[in-house]
Write a structure and sequence with these properties.
The protein has about 220 residues and is mainly β. The chain folds into three domains: about 100 residues, RNA-binding S4 domain (Structural Genomics Hypothetical 15.5 Kd Protein In mrcA-pckA Intergenic Region, Chain A), CATH 3.10.290; about 55 residues, OB fold (Dihydrolipoamide Acetyltransferase, E2P), CATH 2.40.50.740; about 45 residues, SH3 type barrels, CATH 2.30.30. It is about 10% helix and about 40% strand. The chain is built from two helices and 19 strands. The chain has a five-stranded antiparallel sheet with strand order 5-4-7-8-9, with no helix packed on it. It has a five-stranded antiparallel sheet with strand order 12-11-10-13-14, with no helix packed on it. Strand 16 and strand 17 form a beta hairpin. The protein is globular and about 50 Å long. It starts with a strand and ends with a strand.
Amino acid sequence: MTHLKRQKVSKRWPIPRKGTKFVVSPSFSPTRGVPILVVLRDMLKICQNRKESKKALHAKQILLNSKIVKDDRQSALLFDTISIVPAEKYYRLGLSSNGKYSLEEIQEKETNFKVTKVVDKRILKRKKIQLNLYDGKNFLSDTKCNVGDSVVINFKKKKIEKCLPLTDKVKIVIVEGKHAGKGGFLEKLKPERKMAKLNLEGKEINVLIKQIMVVE
């Protein structure tokens, strides 16, 4: 399926609720990311239509996490990087304070790195450890990391660069729930309740641990 009804798309997509009946269907989860077509046409506004976006992809002008994008249905996921080669412009997909996907301009050197969360950890044969991540990726890694921690992925070296532990006082962003997009600091973990107390610009709130991600 290449299209889905506009009224069925995630509220995180920064597109009008009214317009054409159908919009492009992403190749990955509709809630975890946004199609490259929407990034180029609706967010960056460097393409007026799908024909222009496909022309840019065919010319190998768009990179996602330092890799050439071949399909405009491919999803840019949270904290992925997008490179516009001809313009020498670079962006990271994030969440605005109202919970919608937004783009932050970054430096070229930052496009090789991404932070994401460890959602599962498995021990395979020969005691190899596999880390399964929030964005659907998985890595075999010797990096000591627990479920709930975040990791820094190095796309150039195709490995996990380091672990960002989920501990008190770290910087976090809320990635799910009604507070999605808001950032602050972790005041205290309450693992017995699966909750975390956060400080968001002086205001304390409690959210589920699964809804937050360490970013620094």
